[in-house]
Structure formats: C-alpha cells, structure tokens
Amino acid sequence: MTSSHIKVLVVDDQFLIRAGLVGVLKAAPGVEVVGEAGDGAEAVELAASARPDVILMDIRMPGMNGITATERILAEAAEPPPRILVLTTFDLDEYVYGALRAGAAGFLLKDSGPERLLAAVAAVGSGDALFAPSVTRRLVEAFAVRSGAAADAGTPPPDLAALTGRELEVLKLIARGLSNAEIADRLYISEATVKTHLNRTMNKLDLDTRAQAVVIAYETGLVTPGGSGI
Known about the structure:
- Helix 3 (66-76) packs parallel to helix 4 (94-102) and helix 8 (180-187) packs across helix 9 (191-205).
- The chain is globular and about 50 Å long.
- It is α/β, with parallel strands linked by helices.
- It is built from 10 helices and 5 strands.
- Strand 3, helix 3 (66-76) and strand 4 form a beta-alpha-beta unit.
- It has a 5-stranded parallel β-sheet, with helices on both faces.
C-alpha cells in the first residue's frame, strides 16, 4: 500500500448502509473499493482473496458476527494484515469492545459524515495507531474490567513484568487517550522515543494494535476507570 492508494473492503449486512459507504469511498481520490460483503463468512473469504488495506466491519450481523470475522481475518492474514475499522450504531457497545480486544484498529459510528469516514479510513490505512482515542478510552473503561475476566477466562491478560518502568509509563498514558506528541511532552522525551517504547511494549506483549494496548492496560489493572494519569 502507498499513502495515495488505499484498498478497502466494506462489510455490512444492510444493503443501503453498505451501498452508501461504497458510494462515498468510490468518490474519494486514492481509495479503491476491492469488495463488498454482507456477512462475516463472506468477509473472511474476500479478505483473503482481495487483500484489502482497510476493512470497514459491521459487528452485529447474522451468522458469523464482526468479532469472529475480525479474529479469523487477522489470524489468517498474510503480512501486512489489514487494518479493521469497526462500524457501530453507538459508541458504548460491548460488541465493539470485543472487536478491539480481538485486534480491530478502531471504530466509527455509522452516522458519521463522509468527511469523518474518509478521515478514519485514511488514518488507519496509513498506519495511524487509533482513530478517536478518547472515545475508545471511554469504551474500554466501560467494559474492560468486567469483560476481561469473564470474556476469556482461559487466556488471562499478559504479564506486564517484562516491561521497563518507562514502557509502563508510556502504556499508562496511551490508555488515558494521549497521543504520541502529548506523551512526549508529558515525559520530556521525543516522539520517536515514544514510538520506540510503544513498539517494544507491543512486541513484548504480542499485541498488534494500540487499541489492544489500551485494553490490556485496563484488564491488568495498570490503569483503572476514572483514575488519573501518572
């Protein structure tokens, strides 16, 4: 993928919504719609054959839902894996939390306008860590504590003991919704150094997205809902 050309797969079981998304994307320069899917199973097949850079993924669909489809696509994807942007009708949605936990890069409200849709696709398509981090933080705060233990008791959150003190500081601030620039300013280090600490943290914890890092920070108790930063 180049910064001027993003291949997008659109997944939604409602034809009119899907058609509207496709219409907006096709009218945008530098965006190519490489497929449309009406359910999760079809999305998994198209993701493998069309190799999109970004997938707009509906969550609540009959048959295979968006969470399962996200897990399957990311588990089976060749490198580099697609960036999955979850579509939802309301921001505090436990299904969206599950998708972020599974590796989705961010989420977008279905009533967002065309400009916001294109900005989100461009952001995740170019490798930006997360779209609307402050909203994602609210979502994770709402569900991480109660969902973390119950959702997957056989797979506990990773141990944070492998992280250095500075890596823990960066992870805390990421979980609070701060950008790399804001973290750099808070810790008196460069943005490049923030990225280095984040990359090392994600490698040590076997994470793929910044959203997963936020989830882990809450599920391990490194940060707590409503708490302050470091």
